[in-house]
C-alpha cells in the first residue's frame, strides 16, 4: 500500500491542507488576543483625573502574523507547482523537467509562448485552453493567481508585515471605589495608543477581548484587502485548479 504522498496530486493537496492550517493559526492568534494589546490605568496629578491607556504590542503580533502569512502563501504556491509538475509528466512528458514550476508570467503572450515552446502543449489542447482562458496566470489575468505568485516572491526578500488595527475592546470591567463594577466596550476610532477617561479610583477587573482588522499593506498585491478572507479565497482558487488538473490527467 502506497503512502498518501506517493499518489498523484496528493502532495499538492497536502500543501493546501498545510496552508489552511496556517490560515486557521492566524485566526486563532487574533482570537487569543490577550497578549496583543495592553490596558493600564493612569492618574494625572495635574488634573486629578484617571484614564485607561490602550496600546498595541505590535512588535510581537505583527511579526508573528507576517511569518504565518508567508508560510500560507508559500504552501499554496508549492501546491500549484507540484500539481503542474504532475500534470506535465502525465500529459506532456516531452516538456517536463524536474524543476518545472506553475507558469505565471507578465503577459498572456509570454504564457502562451512558454506553454507551446517549453512545455510542448498544443494550442488546441484542453490543458492549453484551461491555462490561457480559464486560469489566466499572467498579470492582468487572474488577480489571485498573480498575487500568490508575487507574494511568494516578496516573502523571500522581506516579511509580509500586515497592517493591524484594533477596532474595539469588549468586556472591559472597571470596579469603582464603592464596589460597583462597570462593563465597557471601547470603540477605538482614534490613534493607538490612546486614552479614555474613567471615574477616579477605578480598578481594572477584566481586560476584555479585542477585535482586530488585519490587512495587506500598501505596495504589494492584494494591498488593502483583509488577510484572512483573502487567504481563504486564494486557497479555494488553488484547490479548484489542482482538482481540474487532476481530472485532466487521470
Number of helices, counting only DSSP H or I runs of 4 residues or more: 6
Q: Structural class, judged by helices and strands?
A: alpha+beta
The overall strand count is 6
Series of H and E elements = HEEHHHHEEEEH
How much helix, percentage-wise, in residues? 40-55%
Summarize the structure.
The chain has 250 residues and is an alpha+beta fold.
Could you characterize the architecture of this molecule?
The chain has 250 residues and is of the alpha+beta class. A three-stranded antiparallel sheet has the order 1-2-5, with no helix packed on it. Strands 4-3-6 form a three-stranded antiparallel sheet, with no helix packed on it. The longest helix is centred in the first third of the chain and has 34 residues, at 58-91. It has helices at 10-31, 58-91, 108-117, 126-135, 143-155, 227-249; strands spanning 37-44, 49-56, 163-175, 181-187, 194-198, 203-215. The protein has one domain. α1 (10-31) packs antiparallel against α6 (227-249). The relative contact order is 0.19. The protein contains six helices and six strands. The mean pLDDT is 89. The protein is elongated, with a radius of gyration of 25 Å.
